[in-house]
Structures are given as structure tokens and as C-alpha cells.
Design a protein that fits this description.
The chain has about 180 residues and is an all-alpha fold. Helix content is about 80%, strand content about 0%. The chain contains five helices and no strands. The longest helix has about 100 residues. The chain is rod-shaped. The protein starts with a helix and ends with a helix.
């Protein structure tokens, strides 16, 4: 009975069935392989997306930190500039008051002019070899009025304090070198 079933058509049917079975086993293995590969690629993709999102978050946090540091630094620089300006203004006022007090003392100590309004005064030639202490007397002898000397002194003080203010302002570290990398 077996030989009757195993004729040529039966054998071809068994071989075809075995080939189809083998093919289905191979395809099932390939499907399993590609399913694993797909899972791995999906994990890689998710990892890349997560890393990208983390990078964006890090950049945003760094930008926010930098903005906050800039605000703090701007406040520090503004406070330093205000302090320098106030200190310079105070020094200027003190020096002006001192110069005005000295000018008033000189004016009170100066004898009244010989003629009304001081017109017609002759300018005496200062003595040769006048010492530095005699510069006030030499200016007085040359007819340089106390008011003009006061004005010149005030302007010199103003320029001196302006120079000090500019130097102090330029010495403030504004932090710009620290933020550039």
C-alpha cells in the first residue's frame, strides 16, 4: 500500500510540502530577525531623539543662565559706575569748596586797588628766580585777578576729576572677556 501512495505524484507532493515547510521556516526566521532589527533601530531612533531633546534643553538652560549672569553683571557694573561717579562728584565738590575758600582768603588779604576799578595799574615784572611758593604772588603782581585765578583753578580741578573719573570707569571689569570662549 505504501508503494501505491508513493508514486511520482505523491513523492512530488511530499517534496513540495517539505520545500514549502522549509521555506516557511526560513521566512519565519527572517521575520523574527527583521523584527529584532526593527526593535533595535527603533531604540536607536528613540535614543537619538532623547539626546537631541536633552541637547536642546541644555542649550536653553545655558542661555537662561547666561542671561541671568548678564543681568547680574550689568547690575554690578552699573553699581560700580554709580559709586565712581558719586565719589568723583564728592571729591570735585570738596576740592572746589577748598579752592573757593582759598580764593576768598586771598581776596580778603589783598589790598584794595589804588585806583577805582583797578584801571591804570601797572604790571610789575616778577622777580627773577621766583620760587614755587611765590607763584601766587607772581600772578598777583602780573595783574592776574583772583577771580580769574579761581576760574582757572576750578577748570583745572574739573579736568583733573574728569580724568580720574574716565580712568576709574575704564578700569571696571564688565565681564565681557569671561563670557566669550
Amino acid at each position: 500500500m505504501i508503494p501505491r501512495i508513493l508514486n511520482l505524484q505523491g513523492m512530488l507532493g511530499i517534496v513540495a510540502s517539505l520545500l514549502l515547510l522549509g521555506l516557511s521556516i526560513v521566512k519565519a526566521g527572517e521575520a523574527r530577525h527583521w523584527h529584532k532589527q526593527s526593535g533595535r533601530f527603533e531604540q536607536l531612533y528613540q535614543g537619538e531623539q532623547s539626546a537631541r531633546a536633552q541637547t536642546i534643553a541644555n542649550y536653553r538652560a545655558a542661555a537662561a543662565t547666561a542671561r541671568a549672569a548678564d543681568v547680574v553683571n550689568a547690575g554690578r557694573v552699573a553699581a560700580a559706575q554709580r559709586n565712581i561717579s558719586e565719589r568723583t562728584a564728592n571729591d570735585f565738590e570738596i576740592r572746589l569748596a577748598d579752592a573757593r575758600a582759598r580764593a576768598q582768603r586771598l581776596q580778603l588779604a589783598q589790598p584794595a586797588p589804588a585806583t577805582a576799578g583797578g584801571i591804570g595799574r601797572t604790571a610789575a615784572v616778577p622777580a627773577a628766580g621766583a620760587t614755587s611758593g611765590a607763584t601766587g604772588r607772581a600772578a598777583e603782581e602780573d595783574g592776574f585777578p583772583v577771580a580769574d585765578r579761581l576760574l582757572a583753578t576750578e577748570e583745572a580741578i574739573q579736568l583733573d576729576e574728569l580724568i580720574k573719573w574716565v580712568k576709574a570707569q575704564s578700569a571696571i571689569d564688565n565681564g565681557s572677556a569671561a563670557t566669550t570662549h
